[in-house]
Design the sequence.
């Protein structure tokens, strides 16, 4: 009995300072490059093995031991808006890179803009998204169509950086903004 009490006391002491938290960040801009056509990522952006392009979103803190307040995300949610007319669209290729790895194409997303305004003005949310997946885990598409905000959720376990390139569009969408939220 004494042995069990000592084990329990040790576990209690170790766990007293530990707390379980789930962090969800607010949306931030996923910096995208407006390339004329889909090109080799390294040529288009200067993205080399293990080195992110300028403005690439980091999914993992640089040093987990020194950055305890920084969050590490395995999943992301993407939404998109632009100055666009109803039914304009744009195609975006999404890339991820692991530490020391080459850029990997995660998929291609076609964002179609609806009538839901971001704020008063001409910016509207993408209300439909079609995904051509090249990632190991299929993304979840939610709230698709009907002039609502379409969302794409990816499990990006193993990637350190995320980058997108808009390479074609129909109609005349401008100021295309893709927002990312990690969780």
Sequence:
């Amino acid at each position: 009995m004494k042995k069990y009490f000592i084990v329990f006391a040790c576990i209690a002491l170790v766990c007293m300072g530990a707390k379980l938290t789930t962090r969800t960040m607010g949306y931030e801009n996923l910096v995208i490059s407006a390339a004329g056509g889909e090109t080799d990522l390294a040529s288009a952006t200067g993205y080399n093995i293990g080195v992110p392009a300028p403005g690439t979103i980091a999914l993992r803190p640089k040093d987990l031991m020194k950055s305890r307040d920084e969050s590490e995300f395995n999943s992301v949610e993407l939404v998109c808006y632009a100055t666009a007319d109803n039914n304009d669209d744009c195609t975006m290729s999404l890339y991820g890179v692991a530490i020391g790895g080459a850029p990997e194409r995660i998929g291609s997303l076609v964002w179609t803009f609806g009538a839901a305004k971001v704020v008063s003005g001409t910016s509207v949310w993408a209300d439909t998204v079609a995904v051509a997946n090249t990632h190991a885990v299929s993304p979840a598409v939610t709230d698709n169509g009907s002039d609502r905000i379409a969302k794409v959720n990816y499990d990006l376990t193993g990637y350190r950086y995320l980058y997108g390139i808009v390479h074609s569009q129909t109609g005349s969408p401008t100021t295309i903004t893709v927002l990312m939220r990690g969780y």
In short: The chain has two helices and eleven strands. Residues 4-22, 61-69 have pLDDT under 50 and may be disordered.
